[in-house]
Amino acid sequence: MRSKIAIVGSGITAGLATSFLAPFFDVSLFQSPKPFASGIPEIVPRRAFFDAISSLNEAETIIQTAPAIQWVLWQHDDRSQQVRLTSNEAYFVYDKGRLAAFLAESIPVAQCVKQEVANIADLVGFDRVFDCRGSKSVMNDPAYQSHTMHPARTACRYLVVSSLSGKDRDEMCFWSENTSGGVRRTFFMIPVGNDRVSLGCSCLPSDVISTAELLMAMMGKGINVTPESIIFSGCAEPEALAMTCSVGHVTPLGDAGYLSCPLSEYGMLKALSQIREVTGATTLSRHLLKRPENDEIDPHLPQELFS
């Protein structure tokens, strides 16, 4: 009799875990009825990803998960560069929501349950539970404790606004500046789908600008934001966090177990390496998990395409 496994989560980590575990166990996949995925495209080394999950059709995956955004413009150091935002021989560029959906639809499971799981201890009747939820969900779960491993290396003040008239919907724009004190700031304008645009500034945690300063900076670029166009706003400082779960048969994967620094690591590859480990496969070499070292402060910028 095959073991009964629960996988909890609606993102890429849950899809990857399902693809590895479904052939060997009776898998029940618990997904949020209203899943959310950032509309900002991401990038990972192509061979590291596809060699580690050979069950995927590489060409089809690239086509089905390609982001709607087609171009990246980066203004920095008195020059302007524009590159296509597309997968190449070295890198796989993907839309997080599309990749999560593609993985979930490609793998048959015993049952798929549309249910919010607020407390992982509520899931009973399973031999093992693999928790692939996001860090916010896990940190609100009484079964978990979080531990700061090291402080944030980057911070971001942002606004999500209604789509801006006259602005390209297929291009993400970045412009980097140095303050009078020599501190790096990178501003961005990124279409995130559903007629919304993310505007923001990435900087050091000690140099976070105010919303008013962000609006002024955008105005200086000809981007005028009215109060009624702002859908929501916030500030993010991604600390490196490790989470532990008090429920013995629960294994946290991806962001549920460790929230790494987006400047220095490929979070998706790190989750994939964890999944390979729990299924008895070899883990990915640590050097494959590392993003190239540079002075850039913005984790959203696909800097690899400009090298």
Descriptive notes:
Helix content is about 20%, strand content about 30%. With about 300 residues, the protein is of the alpha/beta class. The strands form four sheets. It has a seven-stranded mixed sheet with strand order 5-4-11-12-13-10-14, covered by helices on one side. A five-stranded parallel sheet has the order 7-2-1-8-16, covered by helices on one side. It has a three-stranded antiparallel sheet with strand order 9-15-17. Strand 12 (about 185-195) and strand 13 form a beta hairpin. Helix 1 (about 10-20) runs parallel beside helix 7. The chain is globular and about 65 Å long. The termini are far apart.
Care to give the gist of this entry?
The chain has a 7-stranded mixed sheet, with helices on one face. α1 runs parallel beside α4 and α1 runs parallel beside α7. The protein has 307 residues and is α/β, with parallel strands linked by helices.
Note the overall shape: globular
Give a quick account of the main beta sheet: strands, pairing sense, barrel closure: 7 strands, mixed
N- and C-termini, Cα separation: 52 Å
The number of distinct β-strands equals 17
Name the assembly state.
single chain
Number of H- or I-type helical stretches: 8
- The H-and-E topology, N to C, reads as EHEEHHEEEHEEHEEEEEHEEEEHH
Q: Strand order, biggest sheet? A: 5-4-11-12-13-10-14
Radius of gyration over all CA atoms, rounded: 20 Å
User: Segments where pLDDT lies below 50 for 5+ residues?
Assistant: none
Helix content: 10-25%
Overall pLDDT confidence? 93
